[in-house]
Amino acid sequence: MLLEIIKLVITFINNLSNFLSKKHEKIEELYSVKDFENLFSKSCPKDVVAYYNCGADEERTTLENRNAFHRYILRPRMFVDVSNINLSTTIFGQKIATPIGICPMAMHTMAHRDGERATAKAIEKIGGIYIQSFHSSTSIEDLAWEVPHLRKWMQITLCKGTISIDMIKRAEKCGYEAIVVSVDTMSLGNRLELKRLKFDVPQTTRLANFDLYIQGKSEEESKHLTNYSTDLLRRDCTWNYVQYLKGQTSLPLILKGIQTKEDALLAMEYGADAIYVSNHGGRQLDSGKATIDILPEIVEAVKGRCSVFLDGGIMHGSDIFKAIALGADMVFVGRPILWGLGVAGEAGVDRVLSILKEELITTMTFCGTPDVNLITGNHCVKCPPVG
Ligand SMILES: Cc1cc2nc3c(=O)[nH]c(=O)nc-3n(C[C@H](O)[C@H](O)[C@H](O)COP(=O)(O)O)c2cc1C
């Protein structure tokens, strides 16, 4: 009997180590972000894939964000000493090891039980910035406690009542270094795929930042707060509200979702410290321009008076290079991170980030730019339209 048990334990250990090494091999055999996208789509539940990948309406903007990068071509330069590559840069007067960050994205535990802890630990390892979503499944406090050396910013959705300001204060207390206000969440985009699937947030996923507010509330009231509905979203904010928000925090204030030069100028006038060019990955309004196409008009309007960030459609390190060449100070990655998380948790996010970072280094090497701060508009041009 004892022998049988020992044999069973040995078989279990062997199987487990085989499984783990296979999983490891599998990640090592994924060579591009696209490989992760394919495996994620094949291996994760259909509604999770739909929730993470979908865009609004016909998803034209989601697709366009990606495709637009192909219209920008690189201008490599020769005979530059590229034996040492520097990725570090300075944002808000602070040194940052890499110009790559993670976008705020809701509910990471839907992709993997380790959720935000895993994504945060992965970006911490490469010294990038993590933006915690207002609708995260790990709370502001827990993330700060569990990944103490993380460089982190807090994303805020503008809600009725005092919740948004409360969350700014909570983030300040927990060592978050900037506040990222999403300016495009007056409503939820028309995500047809989720309607077709009758998508609902799984019972096992909670909006952890709301735990404080539902204590002692009835089930009905709690549902109103945490069902990820549009009930709470503010639609009445005008530019004066930016000034008000600025007065509520000593941290740099970043406006995420700016898409025109007019709004970039207003953002600066009303006190924003940085402009974050984003169309929410095409999940809100469809038929808008790709973010890489918007970037030049924003950079031109801002004229170096504040930092400019970008997200949307990043699939390659060369896309990051192109965004920096067109004037972005930092570039944030969205869905690829969730694909890495869904495929293999923290190890998967590590691999996605290392692919992007290595591709960026390779692009810098061939373009003769040994320092990210030496990448300029001279290294990237838009293809002339065909015909
Ligand atoms: C699943 C998912 C959830 C998101 N949740 C948020 C959010 O809570 N707050 C926010 O400001 N943006 C959110 N976004 C938008 C991202 O911050 C970012 O703008 C977008 O994903 C960038 O495009 P990419 O996914 O093509 O990289 C979300 C995006 C995705 C894909």
Helices and strands in order, then pairings?
Layout: H1 2-28, H2 33-43, H3 46-53, H4 60-68, E1 72-74, E2 89-91, E3 94-96, E4 100-102, H5 115-126, E5 129-132, H6 140-146, E6 151-157, H7 163-173, E7 179-182, H8 192-196, H9 211-214, H10 219-226, H11 239-248, E8 253-258, H12 261-269, E9 274-277, H13 291-302, E10 307-311, H14 317-325, E11 330-333, H15 335-367, E12 380-382
Parallel strand pairs: 4-5, 4-11, 5-6, 6-7, 7-8, 8-9, 9-10, 10-11
Antiparallel strand pairs: 1-12, 2-3
The chain binds flavin mononucleotide (FMN).
Domain FMN hydroxy acid dehydrogenase: 25-385
Binding site for FMN: 104-106, 133, 155, 256, 278, 334-335
InterPro entries: Aldolase_TIM (IPR013785), Alpha-hydoxy_acid_DH_FMN (IPR012133), FMN-dep_DH (IPR000262), FMN_HAD (IPR037396), FMN_hydac_DH_AS (IPR008259)
Describe the structure.
- With 387 residues, this protein is α/β, with parallel strands linked by helices.
- The protein has one domain (30-382): TIM Barrel (Alpha-Beta Barrel), CATH 3.20.20.
- The chain contains 15 helices and twelve strands.
- It has helices spanning 2-28, 33-43, 46-53, 60-68, 115-126, 140-146, 163-173, 192-196, 211-214, 219-226, 239-248, 261-269, 291-302, 317-325, 335-367, and strands at residues 72-74, 89-91, 94-96, 100-102, 129-132, 151-157, 179-182, 253-258, 274-277, 307-311, 330-333, 380-382.
- The strands form three sheets. It has an eight-stranded parallel beta barrel, surrounded by six helices. It has a two-stranded antiparallel ribbon with strand order 1-12.
- The structure holds flavin mononucleotide (FMN).
- The site of flavin mononucleotide (FMN) has 23 residues, from loops.
- Its cofactor is FMN.
- Residues 25-385 form the FMN hydroxy acid dehydrogenase domain.
- It comes from Folsomia candida (Springtail).
